[in-house]
Amino acid sequence: MKKLLISSFVCALTMSGPAMANDVHPMCGETELAGIMGDMKDNMKAYKKAMKAGDTETMNVVAQDLLANIEKSDGLVPLQISDNKELTAAQQADFDQYQKGMAYLQESAEALSKATTDDERKAALSQIGKASKKGHKAFKMDCDD
Ligand code: HEM
């Protein structure tokens, strides 16, 4: 009886495995947008490093790179909304919201590029962090499931 219970438990486990696992999109983390996001992460790291070193020239260059990456991201549809360019009306509405999030990020990065004191820089960086957190919560697919 015990053996039967165990084997049916094991059986239930194996059978529920594939049904329970969330199917991850094959393009998760592999889209053009994901690539640019990775570059933006590098931009943020480079900016903070230059800020620590008091290297304003590098800060300015990196802030411009970040702005260029934001511009590119603005035209790309998050995988969570659609994996093709033909959008339904509902997907278009989501994409509009995504672009609003990108506009907020752009504003924050512009403030960063204009900042002349560390206090202004810190405020802009914190706003960028907020934009990113909000954008990811709403539109970033979780690739780990
Ligand atoms: C400077 C700010 C930001 C940084 C540093 C950043 C960084 C990242 C990183 C590292 C990833 C993972 C990429 C991968 O899987 O390899 C990612 C993904 C993503 N981020 Fe951002 N992010 C920022 C702002 C935003 C904002 C504001 C939004 C939305 C309005 C957004 C939307 C997304 C989406 C949708 C993905 C998934 C890509 C896809 O759909 O293919 N991010 N981001």
TrEMBL record:
Lineage, broadest ranks: Bacteria, Pseudomonadati, Pseudomonadota, Gammaproteobacteria, Alteromonadales
Annotated signal peptide: 1-21
Record's protein name: Cytochrome c
Origin: domain of life: Bacteria
Pfam families assigned: Cytochrom_B562
Keyword Signal: yes
Family according to the record: Belongs to the cytochrome b562 family.
Listed GO MF terms: electron transfer activity; heme binding; iron ion binding
Keyword line: Signal
Gene Ontology biological process terms from the UniProt entry: electron transport chain
GO CC annotation: periplasmic space
